[in-house]
Write a structure and sequence with these properties.
With about 550 residues, the protein is of the alpha+beta class. Helices cover about 25% and strands about 20% of the residues. The protein has two domains: about 240 residues, D-Maltodextrin-Binding Protein, domain 2, CATH 3.40.190.10; about 220 residues, Dipeptide-binding Protein, Domain 3 (Dipeptide-binding Protein, domain 3), CATH 3.10.105. It has 16 helices and 17 strands. The longest helix has 18 residues.
Length: about 550
C-alpha cells in the first residue's frame, strides 16, 4: 500500500478522506468525482488530456489563467506588458506564492516561487529528453537562445521569434504550470506521482486505479472578494470506476458530487429531447449546460494536386456547399443528441469564444431547394450522374452519419457511410487518404487562432487535414496573430471564418456543450467553455 510511505498525520488525513461519508467526519468538506479513463500522470509536462489537466489544475498554477468568460486574467503573474516590436512579454510575478511543503526543500518547508522557476519549467517543457507532448506550444514561436529570462526574482521575460499574440492564451494551458527544480531533481521519473506545485490543493496519496487524495493547501495565495482564504473545501477524492453505469450509480447514492457528461445509454432516462431534466429528476439534481470549445464537423479533402480529389465531385465548391445546405442540423440535435450542443449555423469557430459572432459570420442552414439548385449548377441536376460519395466515421458517430447520409440522399447526393476504428481514421486523414471524413476539434487554449490555424496553408496535417490553401486566408491569418488589439484581431478572425464558409472545406455539424449533473448541496461550481474542473470556490 502506498499509504505506508507517508507520515502518520497524512495517513490520518487520508483515512478521513476515505471515510468521509461516515458520521464521524461530517465536518470535513471533501469533493468527490470519478475519472473513468484514469490519470496517467500528475506531471504538468504530460498534461495532454482532460483527466490529467483536471488534476494538474488543482495542484499547480500558471502565469495567466482564463475566467468564466474565456478572458485572460492574472494568476502567478500579477501583470504583464508587451514591447513596442510585439516580440517581448515582461511578466511581473506575485511575491506571496509558496510551493507546497515537501521533503525536496530545506527542512521540508515550501519556498517562495521566483522567476527562475518559470524559466526552469518552460525550458523543461521543450527539453527533448523530457519528451513532453506539450513541447509543440513553443515550437517555432519562442526565441531559442533568449526565449526565457529571469530578470530578477519577480520579473520574467518571454521573447518571441515573430509576433504571436495568442501566446498569452497558450500560457494558460496546464502544460505551462510552474514546477520547482528541487522536486523534479529529487524525484526524477517519480515526479509524475509526487507532484509539488503552488496550487490550491496538494497531494496526500495516489493509489493508481483506486483513489487520488488531495488536501487543502494551507498557504494558498488566493482569497475571495471578502478576503477569505481559498479554497473552501478541505480536500478532493478522485475515484477510478471504469464503468459509466457504476459512476452513475455512485452519483445517485451521493458518493460522487457530480458527473461529467451523460452517457448515451441513459441520457434518455434523464433528459427530454429539448435537453432539460425530466420531471422525476427536478429538484433532486442540478443540470449544468455550457458552451464547450469543441466543434464536430465533416472534413473534405480539397488539395487539387491529390488524385483522390481530381477524380471526385467534392473538388467542386458547389457540391461542397450543397452538402452543407442538404441536411437539417437542428433536427439532428433534437432527435439524436437530446439538444446537447448547438447546431453549427455560424462558422468553424465554436460558441464560447469571445470572437464568436452569429451576425458577423453566417453559416449554412437547412435549405434543400438551395442544395438542389447548386447540384444543377454543378452539372448534376437532381443528382443525375453524381458518383456515390463515401463518408468515413467512427462507430459511435455512425447513427449521426447515417442521418446525414439519408437527408443528403433526398437532396440527390448519394452518400455511403463506412465506420472504421478511430486510429485508422486518424492515420488516413493525416496521410490525405480519405476524401470525406468525420472530425472534431477541441480547443487547446481559449483563442480562435487555435481553430483557424487548422486551415492555414503552411500547416501540415495535423492540423490542416483538409489541405485547404488560400493565399487570401493565409494573409489574414498572419495579420491576425500579430494584432495586439483584441477587437481588431476578432474582426480578422471573422473574415477568415467567412472564407471557410464560402469555400466549404468542412461541413460544421454542431458546437458542443459541457454537461454536468451536480448534487443540490454543491455551490460555487460553474461550468466553463474549456470544461476545466474549477474547485477553488466550491462549497459543500
Amino acid at each position: 500500500m502506498i499509504l505506508k510511505h507517508y507520515p502518520i498525520s497524512i495517513i490520518l488525513f487520508a483515512l478521513i478522506l476515505f471515510s468521509c461519508h461516515s458520521h464521524r467526519h461530517t465536518d470535513k468538506k471533501i469533493f468527490h468525482y470519478n475519472e473513468q479513463t484514469g490519470i496517467a500522470s500528475l506531471d504538468p509536462a504530460f498534461a495532454k488530456n482532460q483527466s490529467i489537466m483536471w488534476a494538474i489544475h488543482q495542484l499547480y498554477n500558471t502565469l495567466i489563467e482564463v475566467d468564466e468568460n474565456m478572458q485572460l486574467k492574472p494568476s502567478l503573474a500579477k501583470s504583464w506588458e508587451l514591447s513596442e516590436d510585439n516580440l517581448q512579454f515582461t511578466f511581473h510575478l506575485r511575491a506571496d506564492v509558496y510551493f507546497h511543503d515537501d521533503a525536496a526543500f530545506t527542512n521540508g518547508k515550501g519556498r517562495l516561487l521566483t522567476a527562475r522557476d518559470v524559466v526552469f519549467s518552460f525550458n523543461r517543457l521543450v527539453d527533448k529528453e523530457v519528451a513532453s507532448p506539450g513541447a509543440w506550444i513553443f515550437n517555432n514561436r519562442i526565441d531559442t537562445i533568449n526565449g526565457f529570462v529571469a530578470v530578477d526574482d519577480s520579473t520574467f521575460q518571454l521573447k518571441l521569434l515573430r509576433p504571436f499574440q495568442p501566446i498569452l492564451g497558450i500560457l494558460s494551458m496546464q502544460y505551462c504550470s510552474i514546477v520547482p527544480a528541487e522536486a523534479v531533481n529529487k524525484y526524477g521519473s517519480n515526479f509524475r506521482s509526487h507532484p509539488v506545485g503552488t496550487g490550491p490543493f496538494q497531494l496526500v496519496t495516489w493509489e493508481e486505479g483506486q483513489a487520488l487524495l488531495l488536501k487543502k493547501n494551507p498557504r494558498y495565495f488566493e482569497r475571495d472578494s471578502s478576503g477569505n482564504a481559498l479554497p473552501y473545501l478541505d480536500g478532493i477524492k478522485v475515484s477510478f470506476y471504469d464503468s459509466k453505469a457504476t459512476e452513475f450509480l455512485e452519483f445517485q447514492q451521493n458518493r460522487l458530487d457530480f458527473i461529467n457528461d451523460i452517457d448515451a445509454s441513459f441520457k434518455d432516462e434523464i433528459l427530454t429531447k429539448t435537453g432539460r431534466l425530466k420531471k422525476q429528476w427536478e429538484g433532486k439534481l442540478v443540470l449544468q449546460k455550457h458552451d464547450y470549445l469543441n466543434i464536430e464537423y465533416l472534413g473534405i479533402l480539397v488539395d487539387p494536386a491529390n488524385d483522390l480529389v481530381k477524380n471526385s465531385p467534392l473538388q467542386l465548391q458547389k457540391i461542397r456547399q450543397a452538402i452543407n445546405y442538404g441536411f437539417d442540423r437542428r433536427k439532428m440535435m433534437l432527435y439524436l443528441r437530446n439538444s446537447i450542443g448547438t447546431a453549427a449555423e455560424s462558422g468553424f469557430v465554436p460558441a464560447g469564444l469571445p470572437s464568436f459572432d452569429t451576425v458577423a459570420v453566417k453559416g449554412y442552414r437547412y435549405d434543400p431547394e438551395r442544395a438542389k439548385h447548386l447540384l444543377s449548377e454543378a452539372g448534376f441536376p437532381g443528382g443525375k450522374n453524381l458518383p456515390t460519395i463515401k463518408l468515413l466515421t467512427i462507430p459511435i458517430y455512425a447513427d449521426l452519419a447515417s442521418y446525414i447520409a439519408n437527408e443528403l440522399n433526398l437532396a440527390g447526393i448519394n452518400v455511403q457511410v463506412e465506420a472504421i476504428q478511430k486510429s485508422l481514421l486518424l492515420e488516413q486523414t493525416s496521410k490525405s487518404q480519405t476524401l470525406f471524413f468525420r472530425g472534431s476539434w477541441i480547443a487547446d487554449y481559449p483563442d480562435a487562432e487555435n481553430y483557424l490555424s487548422v486551415f492555414y496553408g503552411k500547416n501540415p496535417a495535423p492540423p490542416n487535414y483538409t489541405r485547404y490553401k488560400n493565399p487570401e486566408y493565409d494573409k489574414l491569418y498572419e495579420l491576425a496573430i500579430a494584432e495586439k488589439e483584441d477587437s481588431a484581431r476578432y474582426r480578422l478572425y471573422q473574415q477568415m471564418d467567412r472564407l471557410i464558409i464560402r469555400d466549404a472545406p468542412v461541413v460544421p455539424l454542431w458546437y458542443d456543450m459541457v454537461i454536468h449533473l451536480v448534487h443540490t448541496n454543491i455551490s460555487g461550481f460553474p461550468a466553463n467553455s474549456l470544461n476545466l474542473l474549477e474547485l477553488r470556490k466550491v462549497k459543500k
